[in-house]
Amino acid sequence: MKNKQGLPQLFLRLALGAGFLGAGLDRFGVWGPAGAPGISWGDWQHFMEYAYKLMSFLPYGVAEFFAAIASGAEVSFGLLLIAGLWTRWAAMGSGLLTFIFAMAMARAFGIQSPLNYSVFTASAGSFLLSSLPAYRWSLDNMLKKRKEANASPGNILSV
């Protein structure tokens, strides 16, 4: 049976990756300054105002530490998903990260907030992506094919 998930998984991988990368880089002002059209935060200070609302039960320094870890993870997951490298792990990590984010949003602002921003949808999409058997048009697939070619019986270097 032929795998017909090539284009849908590519679209899901790129959409999730771009979303994580875009949001993560916004916190560092890459897309423009705070207050500019289309910019959510524009700098770390404005992002932390929001992040602290999500984690108001923690001391500010601890919340900032978790926000930095989450931001680094988002940028990393975004890059890995776009490239298709360690896709299964990046998708599992991004699914867990967005689920935790959705729960924090629901706790801080009510359940409608993560629903309005499709955070549960992003989490579910990430978990679905992690469950796929293969990732066509990815570095993972290219590396797998290279490894199989090098391990073939006719290859003297594989001994």
Automatic annotation (TrEMBL):
State whether keyword Ligase applies.
no
- GO CC term (a single one): plasma membrane
- Chief place where the protein resides: membrane
Q: What topology does the record note for this protein and the membrane?
A: Multi-pass membrane protein
Report the Pfam families cross-referenced here: DoxX
What InterPro entries does the database record attribute to this sequence?
A: DoxX, DoxX-like_oxidoreductase
Q: Where in the cell is it found?
A: Cell membrane
Which regions span the lipid bilayer? 57-82, 89-109, 115-137
Q: Could you name the domain of life of the organism this protein comes from? A: Bacteria
List keywords of the entry alphabetically: Cell membrane, Membrane, Transmembrane, Transmembrane helix
Identify its protein family. Answer: Belongs to the DoxX family.
Q: What is this protein called?
A: Putative membrane protein YphA (DoxX/SURF4 family)
